[in-house]
Amino acid sequence: MQQIAVYETNTVVMRKLAYVWRIAFLLFFLVMKVSAQDITVTGNVSDLEKGSPLESVSIRVVGKSTATKTDARGNFTIKAAKGQVLLITSLGYETQRVGVKDDQKMIVRLKAESSELEDVVVVAMDQKRKPRELGYSTQQVKGAELQETQRDNFVNSLQGRVAGLTVNPTSGTVGASSQIVLRGFNSLSLSNQPLFVVDGVIMDNSSFDETSDGGRSVGLASDRPNRGSDYTNRISDLNPNDIENVTVLKGPEATALYGSQASSGAIVITTRKAKTSKLAVQYDNSFRVQVLNRFPPMFDGYTNGTNNQPSNIFRYFGPAYPSGTRLYDNIGAFFRNGKSQTHNLGVDFGIKKSIFRFSASYLKQEGVVPNNDQEKINLSLRNTTKIGKWIEITPSIAYTRTNTAKVLRSAGGYLIGLMQFPNTVDVSKFEDDGGNKLPLFSANANAEVDNPLWNVQNNRGRDQTDRLFTSLGINLNPTSWLSITGRFGYDTYKTIGYQNYHPQSFFVTTALRGSQDNFWNTYKGYNHTINATAKKTFGDFSVRAMAGTMWQDYRTEVYAVSGNNVADPNRTDSNNTAPNTRVRLLRNNYGEPNLRVIRQIAYFGELALSYKNLLFFNYSHRFESASTLPAANRNYNYPGLSLSAIMTDILPGLKKGGVLNYWKLRGSMANTARLNSAYSTQSVFVNNFGSANGPAYSYGFTNNNADLKPERQSTYEIGTEFKFFKNRLSVDATYYNTLTKGQIVENFRLSYATGFVLNTQNAASTRNEGVEIAIDYQVTQKKDFGWNVRLNFNKMWNAVVAFPPNVSEFYISDTWLYGNARASILGVGSPTTGIASYGYARNNAGQILINPSTGLPSSDNVFKLRGDRNPAFSLGIQNSFRYKNWRLSFLWDLKIGGDIFNATK
Amino acid sequence: MKKSYINIKSIVSLAIAGLLFSSCQKKLDEAFPNPNATVRVPVETLLPGIISNMGGSSAAAGSAYGTQNDGLYIGRYVQFWATNTAGNAFDQLAGAGVPGTNVDLFGSIWAMHYFGMGQNLKRMMDWAAEEKKWNYVGVGQAISAWSWLTTAEMYGDIIVREAFNPDQLVFKYDEQSLVYDTVRQICRTAITYLNNTSDNSTQSNLAIGDAYFFNGDVNKWKKFVYAVMARSFHHLSNKASYNADSVIFYGNLAMNSNADNAVMRFANTGITGTSNFFGPVRNNVNALRQTEYIANLMTGLNSRFPGAVDPRAAYIIRENPNGTYKGIRPNLGASGLPVADQPANFWGSVFTSTAAPTSDADCRYIFKNGSPFPIITASEIKFMIAEAQYRKGNKAAARAAYIDGIRLNFDMLINDYGSAVPSARAITITDRDNYLANPTVVPAANDLTLSHIMLQKYIALYGHGIQETWTDLRRFHYTDIEAGQTTPVYADFVVPTGINLYINNNGKLPYRARPRFNSEYLYNVAELNRLGALALDYHTVEQWFSKP
Predict the structure, then answer these.
(1) Which of B36, B208, B266 is nearest residue A216 as measured by Cβ atoms?
(2) Which class does domain B43-238+264-271+497-546 fall in?
(3) pLDDT value of position B511
């Protein structure tokens, strides 16, 4: 067919190129410290055994309120007088007291408190927990690790670092959106993406939707499937340089406390706060060049045509090129070297008990595809203020501007065009002196596949987003046993964008004379979480009880207009189209934006019991009400339960011999709900043309089910953690099993006895299981040199366990991109990650039928299950080397098995 | 003192908590409704679509649901018309929607009832009740009763108990007998609501919704309900439990004059939706031609009415180039008629023409764009009463009702369907009375037969009472002979046989239609299997209602 045999879409090709063959140059790294003139003590805190620096160690002057924390390199600076004593504390380490002698650098080595090394884990609600008490698996990624990868969309840098976490970037272009999925796909119709929580506040990660359901929802006025232009997932607005730490809550525990929004897990992000009230300025930058150098093998050597006959089509089954035919390196001519530069500035400063961190970043990128550029500015200011003895407030404000010049993707994209383009023609000659598209075979420019270079220059898209993310944290600790915390967040952004098709493009007809979409998308999200925790110890038992409430209110407003007959292909404003061709979203016709408002209130409680710090039991319950559901089904609740046992403490004999030093068994189970999309419970009326005095209406075909209930998901997970050889080797293994019942399946046909033709129902069930193993091995750990290997293994199984037997195939139409392949569910027993497509027609003997007139195989024109996207397993291998202050780490991300549809073959 | 202070404090906190909670719930309620599209419309704007759906719908979500679309095919079964070319499967009494065919023919009533009426009717009644527009609730029940009965008699066993549950995947079929009980129950409820003229149940408000039906007159709606009630009793004439008194009782309460007729009217603004399904704009009857059977009834060639030339011919059927009335026989195209004897099509063009005329000036009767289309007429009711009285042995009362039935039909034609009838052939009152005075048509009470009643009813329902006529024919198994008579009730009615009868009928006549293919044969197959509806001759299985 095409000259080149490449994988499904540009996605895979570009991603691999971007992942593996990116050459990064870190030109210089500078840390500059400006200290005040007072008497200061500087020092460094490290692990006694390993020598590795310790971060976030609390340094406090005994008897005074002066305090600070160590930075990522273990360094600290504090004001103190000679003779005073510094109290150095860190969770998991024995506390040390060090007297201040002179102003020389103080070197502190902390000894691990017990045989196990314990970090604290930030879990739901911005709460910190010791890992030993957690009945579920969590994995953490340090912010520094993410920053070192230099990804503009930090989500991409999580790939391979967390077992069971899969990132699927839609393409390798600059500003491309990335899908992030924890522990595979559970829901058939609804979102499988985790919730993003930043400092205890929910941050929106949605992508703009091109579909507007006939102008009824928030999308483009041209109401098209999401196949033309890509819109980034908005969590990429978060500055990677502001991330201190990422905790990935993969399973039931996320939902137990975050509720239905986190039914696909949660990514809990803690931002960097000021370490000291001293003025400290950090600046770093990076420059990166991206060179594509690995391309898929291609079928080449034949002229345009079929069946060995030359013809003017974009297929290359004609006669072989005559010797001496000049062939051009069109791929080389198309791609350019990608360049990017990043500048990060961080300033810590403070006034007494109020400390601030200001950060600013500037990112400019030029992608490997011409006309694909991005510019991004991040500014943020975060404050921590202590008021009196028991009040702490942490307000923050972050501003982001992202401006991305985009190119079309998928079937209308440059990559298919590039693959189809004949090598006998120089791709770089794409327009004549008058700026017209140069024809290949046809006098009608619209009838001919767009030259990829012409495509990226003339079918243009751009969007600009201004985002403000503000949060306020309040911690009250009025007594030793009671703490009250509040997290309040307001997140808003406005995206202005356009996408146009040049009048001469292949993707519009001549009569249309070009088309253009403009949109204005505004998001306003408010949420808060308030909870109170009480702790009490009774002998060997300790009890922690927590109760809280959460309120969420998200509003999306869209104005969109689409029109044809563009006046000037170079203009991009919405007046560019002919007024009589313009289509707007329904409410836009009345001067108001189309809306999507989702609100939810929740109440929750948690009871934690522990016995001798070696057995932990946790029960939580959450009650929710959501506006997307009718009043009758609006209130739902679900429990969560977890258990953790430290076997090495229960049976201390296990530790004999010095091999095993820590063994934990854990298990948890939880139920949760997944909400329907807004307004999917309400069938809408359409015009009825029958005789009437005045307007008349009747229901549309679709049953937006008024009785819809949330999807119900129940998960259990069991796991174990081993640590050997004084923590040098640790193994964490988890098995999980998720059953999602009453899945909401949209737009499928049933008997008209439902009262409708197309239906939305709680109709299917799926089961998703998996095994995750994380192994961490410190091969060498010396003072000056360290080598650490980390493996993240993941294997998943999934299957549809209940599906309406009368529905033979259900698919999400947005996945039906090219070559008649789509993500489909084909009844009970089929995978949730199946690919259905047309296949070759075969005779009864199973032989492929060839069409004699074209010489090509005939299609059977039947959608059948042809593949499964779920890999056999995936493995992330991360090696980190440390030599003195130098660090080198690299990551292999392997996906073994799993099918990719090649639509070009 | 201290104690009371705590109490006040806790009361205040509880009150604040309560306020917060209720304000949250209120904010959830506010965010629930879809702000971008209409999820609730005035009940007045729902009724027009529901009514237009009784004949042949037209909406952004689906068109041509209703009795008229299926009537195109049932009309062939009852020989109101046949196809202008030979070899039409439905002329041969074939069924449609056989597994594997993917056609929805004969499924328009199914779609009308379950989708077109379906949730629209339900919502209209729910919202009207909320708004205390009791007349809209009553009208909804009235149409619902009519729709259930019409649907059940089309398909036999249908989904009743589990119907309209949008949460269900597959639906069980109920016995047809259940429908008759259901219909009567709905009728009684309908009357209760229609009797309630309190609150917002005004005539002027109802007239917004049914402007093109009864124009807000609840008394007419009540008569419509009684008519459905009468039908529900009368259609069980073959059963031992048949109750003629109930038919007569409800028949007398139903429409008595043409002014009370239940008639769909059309705004006729030149677009599909406001036009009669049989008019040229909608272009549906282009291949249909009047049959020999109706032509013979009109021209005195039927053995029941020998020599009785019926002046209604010029109204309900078409002349041929010779100026006479002839018709074709099913499955035989022009049936060997010389060109000059071939009847014009229903739009007044020559026999062979299948093009819809741009003007309906030459169209007559129910075949004009704006012609009213009867759903139930007073005339039909009279024939029902006549048959019931006859079966009771009250021949004099039967004769009186029989005469009323014929007269009412004459009057309806004279008043409403005179357009494009040649003036020389316009019916006068004298013509009507002369016809009624003809003893061949109206014999003495003792000479009256079921055949008289059924054939005059056949004429009175010609073209519009298609489903009702099929029900009648099925009650008489097409060719039944009344006890003591020698000719069949439907005298001279020739059912196709041999090569003119569709092969899958296995020599049998049609008694039911298959449920809509794209609804049932794809998504409810298990139940169809249980019913035997996958059999190729399922459409020939006699329904419960016509069995003894």
Answers:
(1) B36
(2) mainly alpha
(3) 97
